[in-house]
């Protein structure tokens, strides 16, 4: 333990690791937001996790409200997940052949998800959310024989080339690449429309509907703030896809198993044709999946002509960890998380400090202003400077939040009111003194 966390952090070892990392890993990190550029300072090197607590290389202790960006809904090192991993480790780490664990996880998923969302009939596993999205898009294109894909400004779907786009200059136009290294031709088939804009959505379908393979959306947009959408807007996307013969893909890499077991599809009672999963589905191991209609999946290799593969896909360790965590996700667990998050948001909003908390189940996000933004361009950029200071204040008080004000926070089931009160007290001290 840092002897007096309210004064400052000890960062000796973290800083030393970061210096070494910068010499051999670009920017010192394996995923850009980890570099703390959005909040300043240098990243902390984590060493150990226990329940809802994180310990860094200098033995500072934090309550973890990032949870590895969402996967750890049951916290660090849940005994059931560890037991499943140990059991599997005693037998093998990987086979590259079919194995029982992938059948068990697939059966568990379909038997629990199909009653909630009837279109979830088949599932295939990948090793990341990005891969799941990339594969779902290819499958949609193969099934429909169409090239174009519609996405929303403010939704993130991993680093799939064709989806790394910023909104075009006019509404309903093809987007331009948002990253160097993506040729413009790769995004020519990507149509970008703003969230929460019925007119732009309708116009895009009117113009491109006949050529659209799919519309893809984070039904709970949680990568650029928490831009909760109106149910009618999501229903409108569903009906336009059906009308124009395009598939609807829900990217539930964050919302899947987080806003209830059935994710956003069950929450909003809207059945997408395909769904992508990641994060929670792997129990802390690298797993992604795409799932959906059996007739669409009939097109996937080896049954059909759409190729998709992975050396470590369906890896038995990852399957075992995923299944163990998913089996813990009871209605009581969701009720516990929901209650804690409601408590946090209600208390925070009652501060009347100019900032508010948007939340859905156990996802929360702090924003400046009176009304929760529903579009990417409604987020106040200036508020990010305040968030950077808040982030540091939280670290110094033993609270770990995501190192960017555009990122959401997550609760985990080992938390109780004590952890929520600690976060609230830390936020209150920052915003009211
Ligand atoms: N889709 C969504 C909604 C995500 O939030 C993410 C990652 O944060 C991805 C896709 C990509 O997943 P991964 O980072 O596992 O490739």
Q: From the alpha carbons, calculate the radius of gyration and give it in angstroms.
A: 21 Å
**Care to count the β-strands?**
16
Note the run of SSEs as H and E: HEEEHHEHEEEHEHEHEHEEHHHEEHEEH
Present as ligands are:
pyridoxal-5'-phosphate
Explain how this protein is built:
The protein has 13 helices and 16 strands. The chain has helices at 12-24, 79-89, 100-113, 129-144, 184-187, 198-208, 231-244, 263-268, 294-297, 316-327, 331-350, 383-396, 417-432; strands spanning 46-50, 53-56, 61-64, 122-126, 148-153, 165-166, 176-177, 190-194, 212-217, 247-251, 274-277, 288-292, 355-360, 363-368, 399-400, 409-410. Helix 6 (198-208) packs parallel to helix 7 (231-244). It is globular and about 60 Å long. Bound molecules: pyridoxal-5'-phosphate (PLP). Pyridoxal-5'-phosphate binds next to helix 4.
Question: Could you outline the blueprint of secondary structure elements for this entry?
Answer:
Elements (H helix, E strand, L loop, with lengths): L11 H13 L21 E5 L2 E4 L4 E4 L14 H11 L10 H14 L8 E5 L2 H16 L3 E6 L11 E2 L9 E2 L6 H4 L2 E5 L3 H11 L3 E6 L13 H14 L2 E5 L11 H6 L5 E4 L10 E5 L1 H4 L18 H12 L3 H20 L4 E6 L2 E6 L14 H14 L2 E2 L8 E2 L6 H16 L1
Helix pairs in contact: 2-10, 3-10, 6-7, 11-13
Bound molecules: pyridoxal-5'-phosphate (PLP).
The site of pyridoxal-5'-phosphate has 15 residues, from helix 4.
In short:
A seven-stranded mixed beta sheet has the order 4-12-11-10-9-5-8, sandwiched between helices. It has 433 residues and is of the alpha/beta class.
Relevant terms:
7-stranded mixed sheet, disordered N terminus, alpha/beta, 4-stranded mixed sheet, binds pyridoxal-5'-phosphate, 433 residues
């Amino acid at each position: 333990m840092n002897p007096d966390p309210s004064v400052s952090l000890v960062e000796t070892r973290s800083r030393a690791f970061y210096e070494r990392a910068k010499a051999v890993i670009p920017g010192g990190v394996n995923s850009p937001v980890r570099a703390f550029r959005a909040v300043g300072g240098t990243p902390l090197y984590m060493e150990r996790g226990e329940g809802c607590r994180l310990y860094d290389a200098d033995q500072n202790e934090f309550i973890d409200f990032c949870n590895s960006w969402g996967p750890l809904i049951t916290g660090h090192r849940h005994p059931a997940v560890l037991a499943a991993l140990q059991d599997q480790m005693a037998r093998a780490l990987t086979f590259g052949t079919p194995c029982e664990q992938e059948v068990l996880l697939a059966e568990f998923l379909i038997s629990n998800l199909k009653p909630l969302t009837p279109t979830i009939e088949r599932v295939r596993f990948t090793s990341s959310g990005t891969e799941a999205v990339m594969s779902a898009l290819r499958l949609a294109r193969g099934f429909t024989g169409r090239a174009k894909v519609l996405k929303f400004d403010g939704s993130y779907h991993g680093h799939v080339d064709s989806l790394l786009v910023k909104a075009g200059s006019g509404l309903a136009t093809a987007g331009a690449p948002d990253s160097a290294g993506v040729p413009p031709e790769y995004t020519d088939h990507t149509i970008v429309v703003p969230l929460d804009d019925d007119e732009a959505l309708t116009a895009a379908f009117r113009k491109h509907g006949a050529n659209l393979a799919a519309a893809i959306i984070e039904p709970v947009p949680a990568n650029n703030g928490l831009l909760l959408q109106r149910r009618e807007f999501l229903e409108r996307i569903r009906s336009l896809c059906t009308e124009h013969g395009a598939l609807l893909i829900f990217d539930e890499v964050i919302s899947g198993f987080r806003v209830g077991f059935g994710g956003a599809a069950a929450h909003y009672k809207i059945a997408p044709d395909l769904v992508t999963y990641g994060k929670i589905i792997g129990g802390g191991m690298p797993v992604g999946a795409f799932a959906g209609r059996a007739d669409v999946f009939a097109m996937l290799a080896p049954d059909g002509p759409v190729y998709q593969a992975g050396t470590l896909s369906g890896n038995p360790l990852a399957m075992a960890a995923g299944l163990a965590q998913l089996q813990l996700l009871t209605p009581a667990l969701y009720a516990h998380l929901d209650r804690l998050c409601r408590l946090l948001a209600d208390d925070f909003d009652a501060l009347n400090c100019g900032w508010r908390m948007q939340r859905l189940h156990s996802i929360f996000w702090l924003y400046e202003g009176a009304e929760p933004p529903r579009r990417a361009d409604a987020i106040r950029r200036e508020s990010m400077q305040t968030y950077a200071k808040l982030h540091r204040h939280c670290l110094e008080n033993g609270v770990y939040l995501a190192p960017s004000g555009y990122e959401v926070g997550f609760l985990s089931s080992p938390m109780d009111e004590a952890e929520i009160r600690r976060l609230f007290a830390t936020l209150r001290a920052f915003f009211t003194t």
